[in-house]
Amino acid sequence: MRAIYRSFIGSALATTVLLAFATIAQAQNASSPVSTVGFLYSNNQFATLALPDIPNTDVVPTGINDSGDVAGFLVNAGCFLRRADQSVSMISLSGATKCVASHVNDAGSVVGWYVSASHMQLSFLASVDGNVTLISIPDCSSVSAYGINNKAEIVGSCESEAASGVSEVGFLLGTGGTITIINPPSAANTFLRGINDKEMIVGNYYTAQNEYHAFLYSDGQFKNIDIPECSRVDIRAINNQGQILGFCGIAGKPANQGFVLDIANGSFKPLVGPKGEETSPNAINNKGDIVGIW
Fold this sequence. Notes:
Elements: E1 4-9, E2 12-16, E3 18-23, E4 38-42, E5 45-48, E6 59-64, E7 70-74, E8 78-82, E9 88-91, E10 98-104, E11 110-115, E12 121-126, E13 131-136, E14 140-148, E15 154-160, E16 168-173, E17 178-182, E18 187-195, E19 201-207, E20 212-218, E21 221-226, E22 230-238, E23 243-250, E24 257-262, E25 268-271, E26 280-284, E27 290-293
Antiparallel strand pairs: 1-21, 2-17, 3-13, 4-5, 4-27, 6-7, 7-8, 8-9, 10-11, 11-12, 12-13, 14-15, 15-16, 16-17, 18-19, 19-20, 20-21, 22-23, 23-24, 24-25, 26-27
């Protein structure tokens, strides 16, 4: 199977970022019935990814770095970073009612978002030294940080209060504190999901006609990603080898069919659980290790 790429040129707008600071604290464990199972896919083998210190809680792994550190969240119980040595640190923000960690880079920095007690959706960067930086985007609300690379560049989306005809915009937060707004030309809503060290960005967008597309943004160009066998393509991440991770619906397959798409040669590798389970992969590192849920 080969993917089809359709190219078009887009423009970007640079603005300024506002940052605030908070402190990381130890989260209180909570429990909920297990309904999803986290997995690690490595060397062509699936393994359950669990947190032994926190039983009876849904584990949703969402990021993995080259050291094998895994970021994620516990349904109803906050965000975590599980290091390669199996030790677990919980990330908690004062007043948060829900926390979703999205990704982790090789420095151990975790990005994600949370819902405050006042029902505001805010984004954070949790560094390895135990501090959390809150991310605020000018003229935006409901900020969601989804991806971070090893340069500490962050991508995400937010609800625009300024862009005409666009309700959800994509942003790239650079290391110098600048923000680049990134939207495909026909997008009404944009979701930037992942970024690699080459500043290749992947995500999805809706048009005003409610058409849903996956895309790659690289060197100032947008390329739609179409997979003929898929009814809908959701993109989650891209590594430095140009391997794009996502899931889609394929006739005769489970509802969510995970895949790895290699943009160098267009090869498509499906990810089906060992017993035929549907998979929703969330992250891929530069070694090809993948985490997600089934």
